[in-house]
Amino acid sequence: MSKWRVLIFLLCVFSITVLFKENDQRRILQKFNLPLDTDPFACGKCLTENDTWFLQRINQSVKPFLSPNHNLSEDTFNWWKLLQKEKRNFSHYKETVDMLFQIFPSIPDVIESRPQKYESCAVVGNSANLIRSHYGPLIDFHDVVIRINAGQTKGYETDVGNKTTHRIMYPESATDLDNTTHLVLFPFKIQDLEWLISALTTGFSGKWYLPIKSKIKANKNLVMVMNPAFMKYVHDAWLENKGNYPSTGFMALLLALHICDEVHVFGYGADKDGNWSHYWEKLKDTNLKTGMHPGIEEYQTIEKLAQKMKLTFYRGL
Ligand SMILES: *[C@@H]1O[C@H](CO)[C@@H](O)[C@H](O)[C@H]1NC(C)=O
Ligand SMILES: *[C@@H]1O[C@H](CO)[C@@H](O)[C@H](O)[C@H]1NC(C)=O
Ligand SMILES: *[C@@H]1O[C@H](CO)[C@@H](O)[C@H](O)[C@H]1NC(C)=O
Ligand SMILES: *[C@@H]1O[C@H](CO)[C@@H](O)[C@H](O)[C@H]1NC(C)=O
Ligand SMILES: *[C@@H]1O[C@H](CO)[C@@H](O)[C@H](O)[C@H]1NC(C)=O
Ligand SMILES: *[C@@H]1O[C@H](CO)[C@@H](O)[C@H](O)[C@H]1NC(C)=O
Ligand SMILES: *[C@@H]1O[C@H](CO)[C@@H](O)[C@H](O)[C@H]1NC(C)=O
């Protein structure tokens, strides 16, 4: 990297820091010429307004992560097992979870007993609306940067940044991580928990309709597993049970609302032509939306959360 690029980068970091200290996000957005449809400052009254909609949905006592210290109810298990046609019974689930915590530390407890949540989080979806957005520095500025599935950074740093503190995945979407990134597993069946145990130890040899990596690189100490009870809560409370179950992206966003004080959302929704695609590849079916997930309800909920200033929604290009 040339000296000039280093200097310009440092200048950017410096001005971002100063600007954020002044808590003047609008100026940053103007500086980077970033679009922000939902102007958080247009609605000074919103915070004190009747927030029934939000309060009726949010439930801070639902634990986002699996832990040896809280048990799933059989009811919740019976909901969860339908997601991907789990055949095995509740006892088997419990045995697998017990095995899981023989290998992985119960980090979730640490998070849940943190006196404070993470200060500010960027949740980065995979939409093609990130292309040419120049969001990179803005995304990397957050304490926590949550990415989803195959969402890559190499070659796309200007638009998506290069920092990943948490990567959400399921076995069929798994990728290798560096030693400082949290692997956040979203499990949809018992096999997914078994995969996590094996993929980080002896190697996994099970089958699914999609290929599954037998081994992955990740720091075992930083593994977190989403609690099926949290998935059910998102489906019940936030989507009124619409669709089969919530998309990974939507659950990631709700997770952030629970573990972060401030949530900034990037790379969700279609691009400006209305196409649904990934920023690093063209999907064949650009009308795919979110398949069996309730895409419209999810999008409307994100819009509403933005309107009510529970998150900041960067719509990209
Ligand atoms: C808040 O709004 C709901 C309907 O949206 C209404 O039923 C309720 O009475 C309102 N509460 C207050 C305190 O204004
Ligand atoms: C919130 O979640 C807890 C734990 O799952 C549950 O016991 C409680 O009934 C929920 N509260 C509401 C208002 O749904
Ligand atoms: C969870 O279940 C185990 C047995 O499966 C039991 O030993 C433990 O006490 C339960 N924990 C809670 C918090 O209910
Ligand atoms: C659960 O399934 C196992 C076989 O995988 C069986 O041995 C066990 O009896 C079943 N438990 C219950 C409670 O049905
Ligand atoms: C991200 O980019 C910055 C600036 O170019 C660099 O200092 C840092 O090492 C990069 N981080 C990663 C994880 O690649
Ligand atoms: C990764 O981090 C852990 C601590 O979380 C450490 O024990 C381990 O040596 C590190 N591995 C590498 C390859 O740096
Ligand atoms: C997006 O959609 C438009 C019209 O629907 C189409 O012409 C265009 O090729 C699509 N772009 C991409 C990148 O798929």
From TrEMBL:
<dbReference type="Pfam" id="PF00777">
    <property type="entry name" value="Glyco_transf_29"/>
</dbReference>
<keyword id="KW-0325">Glycoprotein</keyword>
<feature type="binding site">
    <location>
        <position position="209"/>
    </location>
    <ligand>
        <name>substrate</name>
    </ligand>
</feature>
<dbReference type="GO" id="GO:0003836">
    <property type="term" value="F:beta-galactoside (CMP) alpha-2,3-sialyltransferase activity"/>
</dbReference>
<dbReference type="GO" id="GO:0047288">
    <property type="term" value="F:beta-D-galactosyl-(1-&gt;3)-N-acetyl-beta-D-galactosaminide alpha-2,3- sialyltransferase"/>
</dbReference>
<feature type="binding site">
    <location>
        <position position="249"/>
    </location>
    <ligand>
        <name>substrate</name>
    </ligand>
</feature>
<feature type="disulfide bond">
    <location>
        <begin position="121"/>
        <end position="260"/>
    </location>
</feature>
<dbReference type="GO" id="GO:0097503">
    <property type="term" value="P:sialylation"/>
</dbReference>
<keyword id="KW-1133">Transmembrane helix</keyword>
<comment type="subunit">
    <text>Homodimer; disulfide-linked. Homodimer formation occurs in the endoplasmic reticulum.</text>
</comment>
<dbReference type="InterPro" id="IPR001675">
    <property type="entry name" value="Glyco_trans_29"/>
</dbReference>
<keyword id="KW-0735">Signal-anchor</keyword>
<dbReference type="GO" id="GO:0006629">
    <property type="term" value="P:lipid metabolic process"/>
</dbReference>
<dbReference type="InterPro" id="IPR051757">
    <property type="entry name" value="Beta-gal_alpha2-3_sialyltrans"/>
</dbReference>
<feature type="binding site">
    <location>
        <position position="278"/>
    </location>
    <ligand>
        <name>substrate</name>
    </ligand>
</feature>
<keyword id="KW-0808">Transferase</keyword>
<keyword id="KW-0732">Signal</keyword>
<protein>
    <recommendedName>
        <fullName>CMP-N-acetylneuraminate-beta-galactosamide-alpha-2,3-sialyltransferase 1</fullName>
        <ecNumber>2.4.3.2</ecNumber>
        <ecNumber>2.4.3.4</ecNumber>
    </recommendedName>
</protein>
<feature type="binding site">
    <location>
        <position position="126"/>
    </location>
    <ligand>
        <name>substrate</name>
    </ligand>
</feature>
<keyword id="KW-0472">Membrane</keyword>
<keyword id="KW-0443">Lipid metabolism</keyword>
<feature type="binding site">
    <location>
        <position position="245"/>
    </location>
    <ligand>
        <name>substrate</name>
    </ligand>
</feature>
<keyword id="KW-0333">Golgi apparatus</keyword>
<keyword id="KW-0812">Transmembrane</keyword>
<keyword id="KW-0328">Glycosyltransferase</keyword>
<comment type="similarity">
    <text>Belongs to the glycosyltransferase 29 family.</text>
</comment>
<dbReference type="InterPro" id="IPR038578">
    <property type="entry name" value="GT29-like_sf"/>
</dbReference>
<comment type="pathway">
    <text>Glycolipid biosynthesis.</text>
</comment>
<dbReference type="GO" id="GO:0032580">
    <property type="term" value="C:Golgi cisterna membrane"/>
</dbReference>
<feature type="binding site">
    <location>
        <position position="269"/>
    </location>
    <ligand>
        <name>substrate</name>
    </ligand>
</feature>
<comment type="pathway">
    <text>Protein modification; protein glycosylation.</text>
</comment>
<keyword id="KW-0964">Secreted</keyword>
<dbReference type="InterPro" id="IPR012163">
    <property type="entry name" value="Sialyl_trans"/>
</dbReference>
<dbReference type="GO" id="GO:0005576">
    <property type="term" value="C:extracellular region"/>
</dbReference>
<feature type="signal peptide">
    <location>
        <begin position="1"/>
        <end position="20"/>
    </location>
</feature>
<feature type="binding site">
    <location>
        <position position="293"/>
    </location>
    <ligand>
        <name>substrate</name>
    </ligand>
</feature>
<feature type="binding site">
    <location>
        <position position="84"/>
    </location>
    <ligand>
        <name>substrate</name>
    </ligand>
</feature>
<keyword id="KW-1015">Disulfide bond</keyword>
<feature type="binding site">
    <location>
        <position position="149"/>
    </location>
    <ligand>
        <name>substrate</name>
    </ligand>
</feature>
